[in-house]
Amino acid sequence: MSFLIAIIGRPNVGKSTLFNRLLKKRKALVEETPGVTRDRNYAIVELEGKTFTLVDTGGFEPINKNNIKIEHIQEQIQIALDSCQLILFVLNGEEGLNPYDLEISKLIRRRKKDIIGVINKVESKKSQDNVYDFYSLGLETIIPVSAKYNIGILDLQDEIVNRVPACKEDKDDIQGIKVAILGRPNVGKSTLVNKILGTNRMLVDSEPGTTTDSIDTHFKFGNINYILIDTAGIRRKARVSLRLEKYCVIEALKTIDRCDVGILLLDAEEGVTDQDARIGGYIYERGKGVIIAVNKWDLIKDKDTWREYEITIKENLKFLSFAPIISISALTGRRVKKILTLLNEVSKETEKKISTPLLNRFLNEVVNKNPPPMHGKRPTKFYYITQIGIKPPTFNIYCNSKDKIHFSYKRYLVNQLYMAFGFMGTPLRINFKSKNNKD
User: Fold this and answer.
1) Has residue 172 been placed in a domain?
2) Which CATH number characterizes residue 315's domain?
3) I need a surface site. Which of 83, 201, 267, 325 has the fewest CB within 10 A?
């Protein structure tokens, strides 16, 4: 399960600045792919051999910053506490200790979460003197930094690495296709689980967020074993800020790393929302197989609109153009068994291997049909292609100018791979490599 680190604190303490500063000190694992809707408040990172997800809660603060209520801050902190294993509690060294800092500290300590106190904006003699006041919060670890001027960041980085556990291989007693049900609150995730299993094993409620923990369910359909993971929702009260609702994607991150195939569940009446696109982007970035299931299709009166509806989904989720789209009703069971068939097919596609001779014949054909653009006076030459991995299928293409190949041509090659070899429901990765170098 992904190790989550949340950056929390009251507004204007420099959370986002610290987030951006930390990202410059690590290796990014997020692929920069145009069209992928991603929330810049998160990053999946690798630091000194350890992998974790860093989340900045700055984007989820109350909109009216001039009238901040402690209930809103508490709400934000509670969501972070429910989701994360480590808290970076950011405080403002320039302003000194604030009553809100005391309230937040009480919330965190009550839950006994692992915490690093980060005193930001320590850039002057006054701010250095203010650091001592923060020890009254009862935090075991306090690190003064200046995210703006890159002071103390290496010390903070070392402390983070010490707190993050080493990566362990996911080992299940029962082998099978690991499936994550992913989507916004109240799109019908738990209802779909119940219909697949044919039993009310889990609590189903019309109020979003009733599922508070990820639950693994092992079952067999035909001769195939499945491990079904119902993604935890968020306890969402009626007055929770809509901006806070976006935080439910953090719960999705917990299960995406563990699954083989993610079912992105959409609400037929609401269509594709920004939040759906974010979750879809996370599935894509982690290289997981994906099926797009449009739930509550039984509520749509004009069933003849499906083709137009499907086109709209593809336009809004262009980065998931390879994913099969299916209309279902989790409530009535319509086409739910078809999902299991698709799961099996997509799982096989994520493990598909193409032989090197076949790949090189493919490369020669598509390059001859559409040669890559020149860069300067030097033509781009592709020497050979080979598949180096699965889940997702990953390919190395060796060439003479790996840094000069435009993204549009890379996209062309990816599309041609789909056309030639299928790979339904699975993202593809292409790396360009210099022929005589190991990079």
Assistant:
1) no
2) 3.40.50.300
3) 201
Both tokens of 429, joined, read 């990765």
Question: Based on the domain organization, do 60 and 122 belong to the same domain?
Answer: yes
What is the DSSP pairing of strand 215-221 with strand 142-144? unpaired
Query: Is 434:402 a contact under the CB 8 Å cutoff?
Result: yes
Encode pLDDT of 362-385 as tens digits: 999 999 999 988 777 788 899 999
Domain end among 350, 381, 402? 350
Structure tokens at 438: 């190991």
Give the three-class secondary structure for 45. Answer: strand
Q: What is the pTM of this model?
A: 0.74
State the first-to-last Cα distance of the chain, in angstroms, to the nearest integer.
30
Which residues have a Cβ under 8 Å from the Cβ of 166 and sit 6 or more positions away? 49, 50
Give long-range contacts, CB 8 A cutoff, 24+ apart: 359-363. 359/385, 359/386, 359/387, 359/395, 360/384, 360/385, 362/416, 362/417, 362/420, 362/421, 363/397
- pLDDT tens by residue, 28-87: 455 556 556 555 577 777 888 888 888 887 655 554 455 555 666 666 667 767 778 999
pLDDT in tens, 241-276: 444 555 566 667 777 888 999 999 999 999 999 889
Helices (H), 143-259: 153-163, 189-197, 242-245, 248-256
Residues 8 and 155 occupy one common structural domain: yes
* Chain center to CA of 155: 27
Could you tell me where the DSSP H helices lie in 216-355?
A: 242-245, 248-256, 274-285, 306-316, 336-350
